[in-house]
Amino acid sequence: MSEVQVTAGKPTLRSRVARPLAVLGAAAVLAVGVVSPAAADSGRNGSLWIRAHGGVVDSQHYPGPPVGTYHIHYWRAGGGWDRNGANYHFPGRTVYGRIAAPVPVGATVCAELWYHKPGGGYGSYGLPCVRMS
User: Fold this and answer.
1) What is the mean pLDDT of residues 5-14?
2) What CA–CA distance (Å, rounded) separates 48 from 43?
3) How far is it, in rounded angstroms, from Cα 33 to Cα 49?
4) Could you count the other beta carbons within 10 Å of the beta carbon of residue 52?
5) Are 41 and 88 contacting, i.e. CB atoms less than 8 angstroms apart?
6) What is the pLDDT of residues 66-89, one digit of tens each?
7) Which of 2, 37, 47, 115 supports an S-S bond with 18, CB 3.0-4.6 Å?
8) Global pTM?
9) Are strands 68-76 and 82-84 parallel, antiparallel or unpaired?
10) H helix runs in the chain, sequence order
11) Residue 98: in which H helix or E strand, if any?
12) Measured distance CA(111)–CA(74) in Å, rounded
């Protein structure tokens, strides 16, 4: 922390600048402490949001990509669990899902949103990874 210097009863330029910066720094540290826990178990990438908690992964497929058939591939980073969700039709509005995820608390779980292209092949529309809480 910066030292405050007082001359003739008035703070110096150094203290007038240091105090507000110290307050802003403390506020930033507090904000990071409040936001970080939520970021540890839920996240969004592209059109896919996931939350891993209590042995399940909740998902939300957001509007943006083409209407059509999709599936979500789920896995534990480092191995031990790997599963494709069922194929489903995306109608252009948010689709909600949930899948059992038998992984321990603290394990990193990833999911990738796959579009089934009408002419064959797949297109990826999101790949978030989060920690199981």
Assistant:
1) 41
2) 8
3) 22
4) 28
5) no
6) 999 999 999 999 999 999 999 999
7) 2
8) 0.70
9) antiparallel
10) 13-41
11) strand 95-100
12) 4
